Amino acid sequence: MPVWRSPLLADTVAGLEREIRGAWELLLRELDVAPGSPEETELAWLVVDDPAAYDWRTVDGALDRLTCPACGARLTGGPVTCAQCEFRHRMRFGAREVDRPHVTPGNEHAVRVATAVARARERYSPRARVGYELALPELVAGALPTTPQAQAAKALINRLTDDECDRVASFAEVEALAKGR
C-alpha cells in the first residue's frame, strides 16, 4: 500500500478505489457472474481486451483481478520493462469516460488520467506523479484547471528536484520551493 503525500490524497484515492470495486461488482451482478469464479476471470479478460466497450472504472476493476502472464504481477502492476503490463496499461485509456453531472466537460478524463497515475505510480516520473496526485482531490471535487493554469503548475513543478517532487504535499509547497529558481 503506497504512502500518500497527504491525508486528503489518501482519502481521495480510497474513494476512487471504492468506485472501481463498485463498478466491477455491478458488472458481475448484471451478468450474474460469481466473484472469485473462473467466469469472473474470463469476464475480466473480455473487458481488458475491449476497453472501449466499458467505463474506465470497470476496466480498472477488471485489471485488478488479472495476473500478467509475462511477469506474474497484477496486470499493469509489473515492472515498466514488462511489455504485457505496459501494453495493458496503455490499453486502459481506450475505456469510456462519461463526464459526471455538474462538472466541466473534460473533468472525467482528467480524473481518469490522474487516477491511472496514482494507481501505477512506478510507471511515471516524479514530476508527473506530483502534478497529477496534487490535482486529483480537486478534480474529483469537480474542478478542471484551464490550460494556462495547468501549464503554470507544470512550470513550477519542473523547477523541483525529483526528491522534492516526491516530498511535497501541496501546491503551496511547490510554489515555495520553486520560487526564485
Largest sheet: none
Structural class: mainly alpha
Query: What's the mean pLDDT score?
Result: 95
Low-confidence stretches: none
What order do the helices and strands follow? HHHHHHHHH
Number of helical regions: 9
| Silhouette | globular
Supply Rg: 17 Å
Give me the count of strands: 0
Calculate the terminal CA-CA distance, rounded to whole Å: 34 Å
What can you tell me about this protein's structure?
This protein is mostly helical and 181 residues long. Helix content is 59%, strand content 0%. It contains 9 helices and no strands. The longest helix is centred in the first third of the chain and has 25 residues, at 7-31. The mean pLDDT is 95.
Keywords:
single chain; 181 residues; mainly alpha; 9 helices
Short account of what is shown:
The chain is mainly α.
Secondary structure layout plus pairing:
Blueprint: H1 7-31, H2 38-49, H3 56-63, H4 83-91, H5 107-119, H6 126-140, H7 147-157, H8 162-167, H9 171-178
Helix pairs in contact: 1-3, 1-6, 2-3, 5-6
